[in-house]
Amino acid sequence: MATSNEKSAYSIPATKRPDGTWRKERKVKEGYVPQDEMATYESIGKKIVKNQSSSMPPGLVVDTTESSKAKSKAQKKNEQRKLKKQLKNQPSPASHDNVQNAADKLEKCTIGNQPTSTDEWNKPTPDHSQLSDSRKRNIQKKLRQIRELQEKLDSGEIKELNAEQAAKVSKKAQLQKELAGL
């Protein structure tokens, strides 16, 4: 866009801005291209994507003839078979009721002298030897914390117990009984 004068100096002619004011004529060196006229930089990746105008995978040859779109008789039969299989494999509401009835009957069945309901299985056994050492340690830890709270209260470090601390102290007798039972 730069033009040469009679003195062999290059210049950009005055132009009108969108708001109506005029830009001054500017003197520039030979070969200068204004920023507005420069092509924007385009990375290699963008160029590759731009060149791949189709959304098809590279190397795929698309046959646009109608013969490739029309399905053969065998393909149509295969599709119908697949649809029938899918419909057959979907459970119907009636079969769901049958399954539910069978499940109810199985719950009522007994084998030998085993209890029939699951509640009888879940009852805790009276044998206390099965309680783990971790439960004992847990109770001992709680009792130790209660003891520490009472010592702090007696020494005056704590003026009042909050709700959680009071609830913990109130469970002391219950925890001692449980520990003695173990």
TrEMBL record:
SUPFAM superfamilies: Pym (Within the bgcn gene intron protein, WIBG), N-terminal domain. Residues 88-101 have a biased composition (Polar residues). Signal peptide: none annotated. One of its GO terms (cellular component) is exon-exon junction complex. Transmembrane segments: none annotated. It comes from Trichoplax adhaerens. Residues 16-30 have a biased composition (Basic and acidic residues). GO terms for molecular function: RNA binding. One of its GO terms (biological process) is exon-exon junction complex disassembly. Belongs to the pym family. This is WIBG Mago-binding domain-containing protein. Residues 8-34 form the WIBG Mago-binding domain. Residues 1-141 are annotated as: Disordered.
